[in-house]
């Protein structure tokens, strides 16, 4: 693996808004904080928020400035759901699309994994792209780790990147990993501030260490803002069954059960299954928090956008764009080791204006995390 020096990126962001960014150990389990079973709007918050820092100036990622990527042919190997999932894969696609527009990438190709495919299929997808001359090739998701370990050594002159995994030890492989727990902490704070029942919920797609990071941050953030909030936690599928990332129907059923129990703000880390979570929130007069992309602005979610108060944005688009720029410049060492709050690799959205009133509080907590006053765990408490 190439040595990565700690670098900084500046994500596309509005002034005063940081750039952004699933589930219980057993389906149906609860993680209940001590204290009241509910409360009125505004009464759930029991902790004083840290002071907000001065508003940051608006800025845009300059990684691709004056970079000529016209000689690159970029391959994009999607995880399940692919382009159009309104979440993780769409964020990666946006990064490549921007590279085509702003850096003149010569050609692109993309292919999507199926929920039932084996490792051989993943290896074949990556190998085919490499054989066709695509370079670099970006594997979207930790599910490609084993396939990449097998394929990368066979194509030493091809550059690969993998999102959400840093286990592949190869000189031509660059990991693009994120501090999902930090962005999810802010989602937990927002959920508490916007809950009228002092009762919130988390819906994770698949019970994996990656989604545990979303869960851990969300729970910690909620409990930092309130010592009486009640929290529902559920996963859609166990580890090994990745259908939890593409089953909106199951997302709807699980989220509806949380709403029936009294949760009125739901946060999901469930990929395409999140649409079902949003639909359940709308049917139950609850609110919801999106993930990965600014889901309020996703066209495929237009029918439920009115319940999406914010999204934990994971800047896969920025990471992918900056990686392509680094390859074009033949220097990936400038990329950050981890895309966290400090480098605006994760954060939250304000589209729709539904959390404008609590941005100072969120910014205060964000600054505490960046300064090290708050350390966010990437593992849920037992």
From TrEMBL:
Where would I find the ABC transporter substrate-binding protein PnrA-like domain in this sequence?
Answer: 78-378
Q: Which PROSITE patterns match?
A: PROKAR_LIPOPROTEIN (PS51257)
Q: Which Pfam families match?
A: Bmp (PF02608)
UniProt keyword annotation of Cell membrane present:
yes
Localization, UniProt: Cell membrane
Which keywords are on file for this protein? Cell membrane, Lipoprotein, Membrane, Signal
Q: What is this protein called?
A: Nucleoside-binding protein
Organism name: Amycolatopsis marina
